[in-house]
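Why should sequence recovery work at all? Because a backbone constrains its sequence more than one might expect. Tight turns favour small or flexible residues, buried strands favour hydrophobic ones, and helices have their own preferences. The token representation captures these environments compactly. In the example below, the structure is given first.
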């Protein structure tokens, strides 16, 4: 079954049923709003969760975390929200959709990617500041953009780069996308010379179309992913069971296989406030 649940479809189900309790043919449907960078890992995790919970159908709405919060703020039905940073989880809390703790379930690192043919001949971070480079990033407010800004701030504070470097890089931005997968796609298609994405977004479908340039740990930043049950979930116990599966060895192994950092290895608390 196709697990991708578009925002408009969610609303149509609500209007038709008059309820957020979505059941069909004896199935329990769990609606998970998740950051776009989680797409591949969560699809695989859902298969394992469904196998362990017969009769459960996990439906996803994948988008930029800021877009997901906007939908949640408008009352879109959801049982679980998985964000790519704490800022958007707090925004969902401020909107009244999250009232309980949020669990940290994974971390991530940033990389710079270029098309495999690399027409701009970018081989180092320094090259991104050259005039005429077509850089694509996420829009302001999207978690990957927040993390990108942090990396640029750290580069600007390094005497090997400096403020002039950051300003030159920002001047090279030609497109701001709504989520990290759109950034990755533009670079893979050769529509940009470079882009900042998560390491986990160099997925098998684009790995032969891009080259990833590592960012040194001292200049990189760690992306932290929180997840929580919505305060009005139609089935909070099932929603919590999904989160427990994310935190289990089975869920963590899948996340690691998709190049996320497991909370088993990360220097972070498994809980957020």
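From this structural description, the recovered sequence reads:
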């Amino acid at each position: 079954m196709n697990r991708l649940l578009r925002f408009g479809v969610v609303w149509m189900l609500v209007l038709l049923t008059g309820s957020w309790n979505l059941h069909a043919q004896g199935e329990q449907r769990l609606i998970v709003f998740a950051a776009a960078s989680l797409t591949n890992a969560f699809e695989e995790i859902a298969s394992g969760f469904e196998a362990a919970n017969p009769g459960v159908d996990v439906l996803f709405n994948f988008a930029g975390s800021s877009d997901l919060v906007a939908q949640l703020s408008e009352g879109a039905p959801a049982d679980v929200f998985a964000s790519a940073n704490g800022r958007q989880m707090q925004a969902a809390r401020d909107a009244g959709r999250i009232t309980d703790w949020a669990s940290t379930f994974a971390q991530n690192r940033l990389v710079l990617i270029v098309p495999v043919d690399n027409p701009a001949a970018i081989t180092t971070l320094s090259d991104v500041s050259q005039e005429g480079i077509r850089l694509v990033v996420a829009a302001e407010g999207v978690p990957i953009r927040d993390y990108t800004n942090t990396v640029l701030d750290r580069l600007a504070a390094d005497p090997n780069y400096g403020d002039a470097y950051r300003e030159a890089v920002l001047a090279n931005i030609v497109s701001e996308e709504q989520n990290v997968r759109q950034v990755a796609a533009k670079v893979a298609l050769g529509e940009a010379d470079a882009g900042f994405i998560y390491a986990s977004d160099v997925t098998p479908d684009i790995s032969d179309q891009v080259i990833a340039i590592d960012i040194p740990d001292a200049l990189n930043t760690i992306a932290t992913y929180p997840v929580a049950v919505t305060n009005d979930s139609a089935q909070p116990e099932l929603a919590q069971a999904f989160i427990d599966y994310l935190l289990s060895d089975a869920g963590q192994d899948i996340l690691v296989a998709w190049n996320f950092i497991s909370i088993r290895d990360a220097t972070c608390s498994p809980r957020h406030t």
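A few observations help interpret the result. Residues 13-26, 268-273 have pLDDT under 50 and may be disordered.
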